[in-house]
Design a protein that fits this description.
The complex is a heterodimer of chains A (about 260) and B (about 260). By secondary structure, chain A is of the alpha/beta class. Chain A has a domain of about 140 residues: P-loop containing nucleotide triphosphate hydrolases (Rossmann fold). Helices cover about 35% and strands about 25% of the residues of chain A. Chain A contains nine helices and ten strands. A six-stranded mixed beta sheet of chain A has the order 6-7-8-3-9-10, with helices on both faces. A four-stranded antiparallel beta sheet of chain A has the order 2-1-4-5, covered by helices on one side. In chain A, strand 7, helix 7 and strand 8 form a beta-alpha-beta unit. In chain A, helix 5 packs across helix 6 and helix 6 packs parallel to helix 7. The longest helix of chain A is centred in the last third of the chain and has 18 residues. The mean pLDDT of chain A is about 90. Chain B has about 260 residues and is an all-alpha fold. Chain B has a single domain, classed as MetI-like (MetI-like fold), CATH 1.10.3720.10. Chain B is built from eleven helices and no strands. In chain B, helix 4 runs antiparallel to helix 5, helix 4 runs antiparallel to helix 9 and helix 10 packs antiparallel against helix 11. The longest helix of chain B is centred in the last third of the chain and has 35 residues. The radius of gyration of chain B is 25 Å and the shape is globular. Chain B starts with a helix and ends with a helix. The chains are: A alpha/beta (about 260), B mainly alpha (about 260). Chains A and B meet through helix 2, strand 6 and helix 4 of A and helix 8 and helix 9 of B. Chain B: It is a multi-pass membrane protein. Chain B: Keywords: Cell membrane, Membrane, Transmembrane, Transmembrane helix, Transport. Chain B: InterPro entries: MetI-like (IPR000515), MetI-like_sf (IPR035906), PhnE/PtxC (IPR005769). Chain B: Its main location: membrane.
Chain lengths: ~260, ~260
């Protein structure tokens, strides 16, 4: 099932300039292969989020092209763009669930790209979709909350629901933008473990933005370091030494900036 | 005192702005009363007339309740139908007015302009216009209330659409939802409780408005109010006022309770 070695995401000379002239991304060239678990690290404002959001075009780029599974998302429009986005699940720092809807409806909302507008408007999802949603919830150990309203859940539970949404979407790629930044250390571990398990078991290409160096080392198979919109490091996790991180962050990493080895 | 003597404590801002504002408000008040030729002495002179009217109104003619119950029910029905139609039409209007849904300012500015225009026309004037077009009866009243409801519900709704959490919208875009799916899954769950609350609130206002629409011949209890005043039957007029007051209070109470439960 895993087709490791096939290019899933390709950045070709990608740059982004904001209207005020600030460079968000500078000439990025990257190839991310199927089944990789990539962690992007860097300071706030280094362009991690822009890089991630440019993959599903939540952020537009100014130059270059991004290919998803061989197709250009940069030049896709309308239905074709939505068709590519359907294959890319996204997990956000603030979970981005509809708080007043049930967990199940939130997970099913990941299926809308597969059905006609009319069908989804009336909430007529086929039985298979519901099973898919239940499976996804089971995979992140939150099946018992299926009919609970999303705002009744804790932060960690909400983040697992949003992972389930990406799973129900049957995404080939999962993008996680600071998925644990608003969670406590223990919940952080659970959520990161879920992401790793899904990456391993289902072979979903996963790209995660993280603040914490030790988390990056623990979970990544490959680390991309960003600084001022540029990729300053790209390689397997074994290559990333303390000096590497010092270079990415522009200064040595202090002990108290680590999340703490105790939980990991 | 000790704190004030410390170096680096900033000067409190000047109070002159507050005083000037107060003076300006007082000048406006005084100017308005002079220009409308209303004075306290006039009020005192007119006071006995008011007492006179009140004594004629008390006691209300309780037996008149029977005759006006039909009209009262018609008033409520007008408010129900007007609010419902207004609410239905408000949904697309509100969506087109919200800048986070239609990013095109050539659409949302005109839509908002129309809403503002609707709200500047008083409901009684709307009713008179519709009476002129459709003739006497409840229909022009219902139409006036419908238009009036759109102005209110669509305005309040588009404002709450604009203040929703944009996160779920981003999530819906990222799963590949189209515009309609985005609205159904990302926006409606976030605003439906507010929307229902606005509809109930508008209904409260519409019951009160419907009670006076009869003054211009647009149906409802107002017709009887006009008639009894014309014949100087103040006891009947006061019974209408009491009846209206009771009905409006009951509807307000229920509606307020419902709205508290919703939010």
């Amino acid at each position: 099932m895993k087709k490791v070695g096939k290019e899933m995401i390709e950045f070709k000379n990608v740059s982004k300039t904001y209207p005020n002239g600030v460079k968000g991304l500078r000439n990025i060239n990257l190839k991310i292969e199927n089944g990789e678990f990539v962690v992007v690290v860097g300071l706030s404002g280094a362009g991690k989020s822009t890089l991630l959001r440019s993959i599903n075009r939540l952020a537009e780029i100014s130059e270059g092209e991004i290919l998803i599974d061989g197709k250009s998302i940069t030049h896709a429009k309308g239905a074709a763009l939505r068709r590519i986005r359907r294959d890319i699940g996204m997990i956000f720092q603030s979970f981005n669930l509809v708080k007043r809807s049930t967990v199940l409806r939130n997970v099913l909302s990941g299926r809308v790209g597969y059905h006609s507008t009319l069908r989804t408007v009336f909430g007529l999802f086929p039985k298979e979709d519901e099973n898919l949603a239940f499976d996804a919830l089971e995979r992140v150990n939150i099946l018992d909350k299926a009919y609970t309203r999303a705002d009744q859940l804790s932060g960690g539970q909400q983040q697992r629901v949003s992972i389930a949404r990406a799973l129900a979407q049957e995404a080939k790629i999962i993008l996680a933008d600071e998925p644990v930044a608003s969670l406590d250390p223990l919940t952080t571990k659970q959520v990161m473990d879920d992401l790793r398990r899904i990456n391993k078991e289902l072979g979903i290409t996963t790209i995660v933005n993280l603040h914490h160096v030790d988390l990056a080392k623990e979970y990544a198979t490959r680390i991309i370091g960003m600084r001022a919109g540029e990729v300053v490091f790209d390689g397997p996790v074994a290559w990333a030494t303390d000096e590497t991180f010092s270079e990415i962050y522009g200064r040595p990493i202090h002990k108290d900036e680590l999340l703490g080895a105790a939980v990991l | 005192m000790i704190q004030a003597q410390k170096k680096g404590v900033p000067q409190p801002p000047s109070k002159i702005k507050g005083y000037l504002t107060a003076i300006l408000v007082l000048l406006l008040l005084w100017g308005s009363s002079v220009n409308t030729e209303s004075s306290l002495s006039e009020f005192i002179i007119g006071f006995p007339n008011m007492l006179d009217l009140l004594t004629q109104m008390i006691p209300p003619n309780w037996s008149y309740f029977d005759k006006i119950t039909g009209a009262m029910l018609e008033t409520i029905r007008m408010a129900v139908i007007g609010t419902t139609f207004g609410a239905i039409i408000s949904i697309p209007v509100a969506l087109f007015s919200a800048s986070n849904i239609v990013q095109n300012s050539w659409i949302f500015y005109p839509a908002r302009f129309i809403l503002n225009l609707i709200r500047t026309v008083p409901d009684l004037l709307l009713a008179s216009i519709f009476v002129a077009i459709f003739g006497l009866g409840a229909l022009p009243g219902i139409l006036a209330l419908t238009v009036f409801s759109i102005g209110l519900i669509a305005k309040l709704t588009y404002e709450s659409i604009e203040s929703i959490d944009p996160g779920p919208l981003e999530a819906m875009i990222s799963v590949g939802a189209n515009k309609i799916q985005l609205i159904v899954f990302g926006i409606i769950p976030q605003i439906q409780a507010h929307f229902i609350s606005y509809v109930l609130y508008t209904f409260e206002i519409n019951v009160r408005a419907a009670a006076v629409l009869g003054l211009v011949g647009a149906g409802g209890i107002g017709l009887f109010y006009n008639k009894t005043l014309g014949f100087l039957e103040y006891d009947k007029a006061s019974s209408i006022i009491v009846y209206t007051l009771v009905v409006v209070l009951i509807i307000d109470y229920i509606s307020t309770k419902l709205r508290e439960k919703l939010l």
